[in-house]
Amino acid sequence: MENERYGEPDTRISLSLACFPGASGNGSQRLPREPAVSTACSCSGRGRGPGDTGCPTMLRMAARTSATTPPGAPKTGLRERKKIQTRQAIRRAAYRLFEEQGYEATPVDQIAAAADVSPSTVFRYFPTKEDIVLTDEYDSVLETGIRARPAGEPVVESVRRVSIEALRTMSAQERGELVQRVRLIREVPAIRGRTAERTAQDAVMLTAVLAERSGRPADDLELRVISAVILAALQEAMLHWGEGDRTTDPEAPVHRAMDVLARGLTL
Asked: In 3D, which of 167, 141, 188, 135 has the Cα closest to residue 234?
């Protein structure tokens, strides 16, 4: 694919699926257990929201489970920590009630009582009941993680490494919440509809990051296609995990999904 007009050769990110690791037919390299290193694309193409958007794509679902402050990020203040604790209390009370009596049968005022807050407090943190499932305070982990990856690393590899690292940091409780989130997205029409809306927001974020790395405009069609494909692949990976034996490692379907993209969508 001809892309010489976009930026300098040493700062471009590959915008062709054929440029991702493994596209040459040798297979893509799995994330090692030791610290990640830069994996440059082997072909000639190589290179380089503020606030809680509530994007519920599976990529963020993985990233959001880690409460670890990204390296170099400012330390969270006391006030913000209290807000995080309140959001977590509401969310965990909601998940407990959803598990016991079902999503539709659980009104917001019941969630508020279980979290020991007022209904107005619940709505201040979560505008709708669906948002309790689809938003939290760690959405920026995804964007921060991708921005921290080496500029010359293929985008699929960057997403793979950020996602896997987030999954590895999950506690047992966080993994249980991820299982519930996947199940609710699959089973509740209102949440599925809200998911589609927020996935579009997530695609805008990923496209913006890729635009910065590639030097292309943020409305570039190829960037938008790549972002949509990556997010769809991750979503299907997590849904596949959620529909199967959820006691297994969720890393495996993420690797498989990224491998499909890395080899250029061939069977």
From this structure: 167
